[in-house]
Amino acid sequence: MGIFKSPTMNDKKKVDNLIGPILQWAKENQERAKTREQAQSLRMLAKKPEPCEKEEEDDLKFLVPPEFTGKDYVSMLISIDAEIEHGLMLQYLYGAYSLGGPQVPDAYKEKVRNWQNIILGIAKEEMGHFISVQNVLKVMGASLNFGRESYPWDSQFYPFPFTLERLTLKSLAKYIYAEAPSEWLNPDCTGKLTKEQQRDCEESKEIKALVKAADVDQPHNVGALFKVIIGLIKDHEVVPDEVFQANTYPFQAKFDEWGRGYAGGSSDRSYEEKIKGKPDVLVVPLATRDDAVSALEEIAEQGEGEEIKSDNTSHFERFLFVYREMKEVLKEADGQWHPSRNVATNPFVSGTVDPEENSADGTVSNESNNPIYQEEAKMWANLFNVRYRMLLNFLNHSFLLDGGLNDAGTKTARGMIINSTFGEMYNLRSIAMVLVRTPISDRKNETLMAGPPFTIPYTLDLPFGEHNRWRVHQDLLEASRKIVDELRPMTAESNHKYLNALEELDRSLLRDIAQLTEYAS
Fold first, then answer.
1. Residue 277: pLDDT over 90
2. What is the pLDDT of residues 402-416, one digit of tens each?
3. Among candidates 143, 162, 166, 96, which has minimal Cα distance to 124?
């Protein structure tokens, strides 16, 4: 249901054996770096010269576990990263969708809208990461991964348990922690500090306290994962040259197809202008080892990496910007209102009738998992889940279709799939904005709103054969039509315009698919 499942003890032991070495490697290197810094500080205080022999400053070499080849282990780690990118993207989208509402005073609406646009921009960049990571898997001849629920595998790398929740200071603190450089999370707060260093020390401590208060026992940031992946790919002995398959290039995602104008602006803009500017979506096709390394380094720099780059605002910097502004706004609001709607945490479609005895005051509490009982909300949630599955299927299918130059200027199957993927992105946002305004139950005085459930499909595998793949798309379009027919009589007339437009676009796509499959057969 898109809800975090704690791995069993046996699962944890298996995972520790496979990915635990990375965490141990990162810990040992952090300790070595700290020892080097302390030794250098002592020499400076004592005014001693540098040692004659240069100290070893390189990281310890990471050794691949014996049950893997280098290529296989790197493929597993990149697959874990794909799940992390997917999960972060959805949580950021959910938080952004929750922002706004009639409770926000007019004087603050523009500021809250800016926060929403900033976080939606970060989510778009995570989508670019998610797609680019598939390119890395593709060029290495590995299986692509569009899922996110293999939590026993990535529980130690995932920054925090997957949670769909409204945007608050606590949720922002988790996002900041996940994206923060390690030197910011563990600053040196001794000695004489500048104002900026003092603020970093105070905010770092504050963020870690909020993450702990959010019941995240062992939060992680994923810089170590990127560092190991990049280091192993660079090593020709670990990953041989023949692993990289340039002939996969025509099937990979490319910026011209997926960027849609989302490229960063000039670097001489002010810090605040860059924070609020349009997202810089990275979609990088690959042919060689160097291409793969470059793509992963760009992804790390933009979001989850170890370094802060002053000429490009990272996800960490943008989340911290929103956190600081929200903190000030909440202080001014003094508990009278909140910038985000009271949307459910981890909503899912319930198959049962709302039990009235569940709540003494006739409302639903916002607990860890919230079933959607209200009939209209359930139908919108069902529609959302179908369209989310369609998006993942379209994206998956795009990596099986040739994007060669011979397709230029013609209506191609690949072009249809990519356009349809973008269409589903817009559909998900439209349906989500209805759900965050719809009560989760029919109870009197209900204040808890439903939200987009992002239910993971029962399968993300596409069938063998092009005809069968298009048939899957047809089936989902037909399923969507049936939900729309049932939903239309129960929803407000203001929503009919969207439903009618959705049906018309789906009919057009069905006609195109019919022509394509008829020609193919």
1. no
2. 865 444 445 789 989
3. 96
